[in-house]
Amino acid sequence: MTTQPNTQLHDNVPGGPLDEKWTKHKFDLKLVNPANRRKFEILVVGTGLAGASAAATLAEMGYSVTSFCVQDSARRAHSIAAQGGINAAKNYKNDGDSVHRLFYDTIKGGDYRAREGNVHRLAEVSRQIIDQCVAQGVPFAREYGGLLDNRSFGGAQVARTFYARGQTGQQLLLGAYGALMRQVNAGRVKLHVRKEMVDLVEVDGIARGIVTRDLTNGKFERWAGHAVLLCSGGYGNVFYLSTNAKASNVTAAWRAHKRGAFFANPCYTQIHPTCIPVHGEFQSKLTLMSESLRNDGRVWVPQDDGDARAAGTIPEGERDYYLERKYPSFGNLVPRDVASRNAKQVCDAGRGVGTTGKAVYLDFRDAIKRDGRDMIQARYGNLFDMYARITGEDPYSVPMRIFPAVHYTMGGLWVDYNLESTVPGLFVLGEANFSDHGANRLGASALMQGLADGYFVVPATIASHLAGRVLQPVDTSHDAFAQAEAASRQRFQALLEVQGSRTVDSFHRELGLICWDQCGMSRNRADLEKAISSIRTLREAFWQDVRVLGDAQSLNQNLEHAGRVADFMEFGELMVNDALQREESCGGHFREEHQTDENEAKRNDEDFCHVTAWEHRDGKPSQRHDEELKFESVHLSTRSYK
Amino acid sequence: MPSWIGRFLSSSVGKKTVMALTGLSLVGFLVVHLLGNFTLYTGGIEGFNEYAAKLEDLGGLLMAAEVGLFAIFVIHMGLALRIARENKRARQENYRIRATMGNSTAASRSMAITGMIVGLFLIVHIIDFRVPTLFGEIDNIGEAVVARLSSPVGATIYLIGILALGLHLRHAIQSAFQSLGLENPNWSPLLRLGAQTLAWALAVGFASFPIYCLLTTGAASAAAN
Amino acid sequence: MTASATDDLTLTVHVWCQAGPDQPGDFVTSEVSVSPDTSFLEMLDCLNEQRMAGGQEAIAFDHDCREGICGACSLVIDGKPHGPEQETTTCQLHMRTFNDGDAIYVEPFRAKGFPVLRDLVVDRSAFDRIQQAGGYVSVNTGSAPDAHAVPVPKPAAEEAFDAAACIGCGACVAACPNASAMLFVAAKVSQLALLPQGAPERDARALSMVEAMDGEGFGNCTNHFECAAACPKAIPVTHIARLNREFLRSSLMPRS
Hints:
By secondary structure, chain A is α+β, with helices and mostly antiparallel strands. Chain A contains 17 helices and 19 strands.
C-alpha cells in the first residue's frame, strides 16, 4: 500500500468563532420546504441510538423514511448495552462545567485527533439531548427533590454524566425506539427488521439506494431513495472477542467503502479496561462492567511476578496499586487507554492474576470497609450480580478480576461537518463514522454522539444535499441496482460454493487473534507487518476452505456470519495497515516505537496531526488521503494524568 | 349502547373486570348464605326454618335477588368458558416439557375445573333444596337439609363441591382485587391476607355443615341404639 | 483456563428443530461436552460447531448482545423460559448450573403471537406493533422544555425505572399458561403513567395498547403471575394492576 497521500479532504467546517460555527452553519444551510419534504425518501440503515433518532426526527419533520435493521426488533441494537451514562454540559451541579469545558475535555481525551468544529457542536447539542430524552420519559436517576442527578464519570473532573442505573444506553435507546415506533404508527417510517444491507447503490456518483438481504428467506431487495444514512455501528468484532453484540459487523460500512466512501482512522480502537477476563477457548464474547466501578474499586496486582497466593492472603505491603502509584492525581480514574495499557504491561511482566495470568484485581475491600457493604451494593449491586453470575465468584468477598477488551471503535467512515461521506448523499452517523472522538473516546460520550448526530445534526445538514443538489428521479429498475443486486447474489453464492472443511467461526476466531495479538493494545512495526501477511493468507484460506452449510433461500445464520467475516477479512488488513502507517502513539493507538521514557504514549504532531482516510481501489492498494487537523482554540499539549 | 361499552367488554382487561365483579358479587352471596346457614347452629332446626320462612316472606324481592344471582352466575360462567377457550387458542402447540415458574398455584391452574365442579355442585344443590321448596314439596327445610347432609353419599357430594369452591376462591378473591387494579404497597399485603382468610373461612364454614350433620346424627343414632 | 478437560460436563441436549414456520418439528438429540464456565449459548455454539463438522446445518437461535440486555435470546430450557435461574437471561445462564450427565430439553417460546420461524427462532414483531400503538410520549425532537422544568418525585422515577427495565424478550408470554402479554404491555403503560411526561396521553395509551395486544392473539391474564417469575428483569405484577387501573379509568372515566 502506498503511504503517499494525495487529495486534500475538505471538512466543510464553517468559518468564524468556534462557538458560533454551528449556529451560523444552520442559518447558512439550505432548507427544504415542509410541503416538499415528503417527496424525499431517506433510507436509514440501523436502529441504534443514531439510526432510530435520525429516522424518527426526519419523519417528524415530514420526510419519508425507510428504516432497516438486522435484529428482529428495532429495540435491540447494541446501543442498548451501554451502561454508564451520557455526558451533557448542563452544569446542574454548579461545579464549573460549560460547553467549552466539555468540548475541551473531549478534544483532550481524544488526544488531539478530532476536529474542533465537530466536537464543539457535540458539546453544544449535548444539553438539548437531555431535554429531549427526559421529555420522552427516559427515567434518569433523580435526587430526592425530584431533579436530575449527575455523577462524575471516566475521570472527568466535573459531574456531568446523566445516568439511568447501569442501563443508560437501554433507556436512551428505548426512548429513541419509542419515537421511531410513533412515526411507524403515523405511517411516516416504513420499518424493516431482519434485513441486512449488502450493498450501496450510486447513480451519477450520488448515493441513491441500497440492496438488502432478508435474513428470514434470503430474498434480495432493492430500495431507492434520495439519501442514505448509515448508522450501522462499529467494527469491534474484527477482533472476534469484544464487548460488541454478536451481530455487530462492518459489512454496511465496508460495502459503502468499496463504493467510494473513504474509511478514516481504522486503527483507532478503544480497549475498555474493566471487562471480565477471558475464561476459555469457547468464549464467544466479552462482558464489560461499567467503569464507574473504578470510582470505588482499587486496581492492583501482586508486587512479585508469579505470586500465586489467593488475593486475600497477600499482605498490603506486597500489593502494587500501580495506577495510584504511577498517576497520583487521577489514580484509578485515568482514561481508558491508559488504564488498559497499564494492565497489559503488568500482565506482560508476569504479574497478572487468575489462572490465565491475564487479569488484574479490582478490589472493593477498602470501599466496603469505608462505606459499608450496603452502600456498595446500592451503587454497584447489578454489576456485582452480573460478575458473580458469569464468573461464579462473589466480588464482595474476593476482588474482581478484570482485563481490557475491545469495546468501541473511534475510526469509521470519513465524514465532513455535515456528516456526509465522500459519496454525495451518503451520510454516516454514530459509531459508524469517525468524527468526534479522535484517537480515544471518553466515557459517557458515545451515547451523546449517537444522539447528537441523529436528533440534531443530520436533520439539519441533510438539507445541504437534498436542497443543494439536483436529484434526478431514480427507481429500482435502474441498471445500477441490477448490477449491485447481482454482485451481492454472487457473493453469497460464492460463499456457499467453497464447500471447504473449516467453519466460519474458526476463521473469525483466527482473524480476531491476529488482530488482538498484533494490533491490540500495543503495536509495533514488525508485528503489524506480520499481521498484514497473516491476514492475507487467512483470507485466501477462507475463500478456499470455508464450509457454509444450508442454502441462501432460508433463515441461515451461518451464511449471514460468513458474509460478515468475509468483509472483516478485508477490513482487518486496512485496520492493521492504518496502524502501521501511523508512526506515533495517540489515544487508543499505541506504537511501541513511540513512547516516552516512562512508557507513556508519544504523539507526533509534526507529521500526524491529521485524519487518515483510505480510499478503496479495486484490485490496487488503498489510497491514503489526509485531512489536516487545525487547532484554533486549544493548545496541543501532552496528556498527563500524573 | 355507546360504542365504548362494547369495546370495553370485548377487551381482555374488560373481560377480567367483569369476571372480577361478578365473582365478588357471588362471594358476597356466599357470605350471606353462610351467615344464614349458621342459624342451624344458633337455633337448631327450628331456628333454621324460621330463617327460611323469613326469606320466603320476602316474596318478589327474593325472586328478584335469585334471578339477579342467576344472571351473574351465567355471565361469570359464560365469560369463563370464553376466556378459557381464547387462552387455549393463544398457545396452539404446547410445550413438550412443562414446568411451572413457581408463582402459579394448583388453585390458579385449576380454575376452570374447580369452576365447573362448583357449577355442577350448584345444580345438585338447587335440585336438592330450592326446586322442591319452590314447588312446596318440602315442609320442613331444616330437617331435609340435615337428612341430606347426614347421609354419607350426600355429605361426600357436598364436601367435594365445597372443596372445589375453596380452591376456586383461594385464587379467585385475591385475583379479583388484582384485576380491578386494587393494588397499593400499604394495603395489598392486607388485602391478600384478607382474601385468603375469607376463602378458607367460607370453605371451612360451609364444610362444617355436612361434618356437623354426619357427627351429630351419627351420635344420635348411636344413642338411640 | 479455569476448567481443565476433566472438569467438563457431558450433557445430552435435546433441541427443538423445525425447518420453517409451518413445518413439523421435533427434538434432535446430541451429546456435548463443555466447561462449566461456558454460557448456555456458548454450549449451543459448541453443539453447532460439532454439527457442522459432521455436515449438519447449525441449529438457529436468536441472540445478540449476550450480556442480558438486548432481549434477543429466548429459549425454553427444561420447560422454563430463560432456564432455571432467577432474573437471568439465557445468554447469562452458565453451564455450572447443570450437572454432569444431565439431559437438557430446549424449545422455542411457544405462543400464537410468536410464530416459529425456524428451530428456536420466533417472530416477536407483535411486541413492536403493540409499542407502535402508543408506547411512547409524543414529543417531537427539539420541542422539549429544559430537563429540570418538571421535577419527578424520586419514588415515582424509581418505580418507573423498574418497569422501564423491560427488555422485550417475551419470556412473560412464554411462561404464561395463557400466553398473555400483559406484563410486557403493563411495563410500558405503567412506566409512562408514573411520569408527568407521560400524563397527557395516559388514557389513549392504555386503551390502544391493550387493543393492540388483544389483536395479536395473546391470551387473557388470569393472574397466575408466572410472568413475573420468568421475567429476567424481575418486573413485578404490581404494574399489571396499574395497567388494569389505567384501562378501567380510561374506559369508564376518561379525562377528556
